[in-house]
Amino acid sequence: MMNRRQLLGAGATAGAGLLSAGAWASTSNMGLPEAALMDNANTQGPLHPPTGPEYRPVVTLNGWTLPFRMNNGVKEFHLIAEPVERELAEGMTAFLWGYNGQSTGPTIEAVEGDRVRIFVTNKLQEHTTIHWHGLILPSGMDGVGGLSHPGIPPGKTFVYEFDLTKSGTFMYHPHADEMVQMAMGMMGMFIVHPKDPTFMPVDRDFIFMLNAFDIEPGTYVPRIMTMTDFNLWCWNSRLFPDIDPLVVNQGDRVRVRVGNLTMTNHPIHMHGYDFEVTCTDGGWVPKQARWPEVTVDIPIGGMRAYEFDAVHPGDWAIHCHKSHHTMNAMGHDVPTFIGTDQRKLSQKVQEFQPEFMAMGSAGMADMGVMEMELPDNTVPMMTGWGPYGPIEMGGMFSVVKVREGIGSDDYSDPGWYENPPGTQAYEWTGELPEHARKADANTHITPKTTSNG
């Protein structure tokens, strides 16, 4: 079993918040793997395998990879189902249920052909199970409470053990009191790498889970009975502007894997590139069956992976294209004030509430500029600042940052991209700027004249 020092040295930035679970220190006497915990919401670097075949490890956006130990040829993992506190964004914490200190739970990584043994300890107040979503395994290991096996009672540990018969992108989540436990944040990703390292190789491999909560401003616990009117749309239980960027070295072959355990589909759109969907719930897509896309729709309960060659440097937006999913803490009953003169009303209200600000008469963009006082434990609906002003986004939004000279295990934010001269939109002042006049002169073609004679 890896100890804490080995874990912290496993990658360039891996394990920055990875801790040994002191409460479980005695579990080694019980034959259980040490239960690693994560105490922050930052993206952890890749966790390279300490033993067995090499593979390009995934990087979980605002998440981490669960370490394992080898026991007579079996990879052993330890998941703890428990109440957790998750920082969704700066200034907002949610009281959720998750695994090993976080929601979403840690990513599990292994290799096609491995036998895995996963210990699941239940520290909730009700029974739970884990369903291994998309994996091919024995019926009794499928994790449907009451059907596959009894529920895991509070305080008990169950063991799941099976062979990984196929590679691909999978998920895990409870199948016991499923509506409540998933609404509270219990979910994670499961990656099975191909046994042949020359099959579908990439230089960067990102993964994130689409999930959603209904948490009213000023409160901390999700409303579990919500069916469709969620107000917080997350990637790995994180909201923009605090979703980390996808940092890429120019020239890399990049894979982005996305899982969806929300109650709706999400069209994930990436700017600056086209790409090919290379993997679905069912497995890898043969090359002859792929086609170029700029948006991939992730169905409910589905997974998609797409790939591209990072040849275009810059800061490129990546987001869900359902516009309400790039907003935070939306109030669905807010009236439309476009075209309304609110000045007299504002003066009256300000006599009693001096900090009152009327907004929405010319659209909602002023919400991205004004810094109104907010209720406790919430975030602005439109937020985030870029190098040229407010980005006016939230929720399911991040940036793919493609740069030259990024190290193979470096995922730190390189800062904002500086557009080269002549490659940025500019204000029209009545004449072309010098760089545009030069470009126009260089590209002007004098049409040829022809004669009928």
The helix fraction, in percent, is under 10%
Roughly how many Å is the radius of gyration?
Answer: 25 Å
Number of helices: 4
* Helix/strand/pairing category: mainly beta
The stretches of 5 or more residues where confidence is low (pLDDT under 50) are 1-14, 21-26
Strand content: 25-35%
The end-to-end span amounts to: 90 Å
- Encode the helix/strand succession as letters: HEEEEEEEEEEEHEEEEEEEEEEEEHEEEH
Mean of the pLDDT scores?
Answer: 88
User: How many extended strands?
Assistant: 26
Shape: globular
Largest sheet features = 8 strands, mixed
Task: Note the topology.
Layout: H1 4-8, E1 18-20, E2 36-38, E3 59-60, E4 69-71, E5 74-89, E6 92-99, E7 108-111, E8 115-122, E9 131-133, E10 157-163, E11 168-173, H2 178-183, E12 188-193, E13 204-213, E14 232-235, E15 246-249, E16 253-260, E17 266-270, E18 275-280, E19 283-284, E20 292-293, E21 295-298, E22 303-309, E23 314-320, H3 343-350, E24 383-386, E25 389-393, E26 397-403, H4 434-443
Parallel strand pairs: 3-13, 5-8, 7-12, 13-16, 15-26
Antiparallel strand pairs: 1-2, 4-5, 5-6, 8-10, 9-11, 11-12, 13-14, 16-22, 17-21, 17-23, 18-19, 18-20, 18-22, 23-26, 24-25
